[in-house]
Design goal:
Aminopeptidase, alpha+beta, 4 helices, 154 residues, seven-stranded mixed β-sheet, 32% strand
């Protein structure tokens, strides 16, 4: 973990684009139509979104983004660990970075939306370990049978 580097990303590296593609494909494979809120490249390039990637030397380990929602609130987006690096603490390191960045920006709350079924159980556990609690839909989200919402007061 000490050789890991977190960088603000510009979405041009082929490995980052490949991980984003995997993320989007998995979102569509594991979510019913109309319940996919994952950001594509244009969504991640929106000025309200900042993406960070985690590297070990020249190897991409994962990514995570922070979206500004206004009213001192932010949203966790695009959390994905590269499959070869699961269970190494990548997602936890990225989430810690996003929480730290949210606090530095003066956010009072950080929220997220995720799925409900088995492929999302590891994410639920990660967010709960980090102090997130379930909440009602926020921002532009609406209540769906498939979505779970979490929030953390900073």
């Amino acid at each position: 973990m000490s050789d890991w580097t977190i960088r603000r990303d510009d979405l041009t590296h082929p490995d980052v684009l490949a991980l984003l593609d995997l993320h989007l494909r998995a979102a569509h494979e594991n979510s019913p139509p109309g319940s996919v809120y994952a950001l594509d490249i244009s969504g991640l390039r929106d000025p309200s979104v900042t993406l960070w990637t985690l590297w070990e030397d020249r190897t991409l380990l994962g990514m995570g983004a922070l979206k500004a929602l206004g009213d001192a609130e932010g949203e966790v987006k695009s959390m994905r660990t590269a499959p070869a690096h699961l269970r190494r603490g990548v997602a936890g390191a990225l989430l810690d970075h996003l929480i730290t960045e949210a606090r530095a920006r003066g956010y009072r709350r950080l929220s997220l939306e995720t799925g409900t079924d088995a492929p999302f159980e590891a994410a639920h556990a990660l967010y709960e370990r980090a102090g997130f609690v379930e909440c009602a839909p926020f921002g532009a989200y609406h209540d769906t049978v498939f979505a779970r919402y979490f929030t953390k007061v900073l």
